[in-house]
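G., the chain you wanted modeled:
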Amino acid sequence: MSLQKYRDLAREAESSSEYWMDVAISDFARELHALMKQRQVTNAQLARLLGVRRQFITKLLGGANVTLGTMAKLAMALDAVVRVHLERKEDRRADQGVVVDFARHKARAGKPAVAMARDSATDTVTMNWGR
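Predicted structure as tokens:
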């Protein structure tokens, strides 16, 4: 598949709510992991604080769907808070990136199962073929 087709696929994905939900979940998981690392909290320790299994924390850090209530509980366990904000798509900083796992969605036949990141400022697409 050509790079142009991947760019077209990324543009098409950006028009769906599922794409932007995946972006928000990915952002939260990345920030949660960074805070855990900063505070030197392991998955097992966070699980104990919340009274859940370690596998649940691992699943969330992997980008599993998470409710706002669960986000708040995770944040509070790390002495933090969740803040939700809106930004224009075109204002999203290039260094934040946008990563979406197309395989996770109920992809239409013929669509690739690949994680892609598109930088709209430079119109470049980065593909991750394996996780």
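The two ends are 20 Å apart (CA to CA).

Shout if anything looks off.
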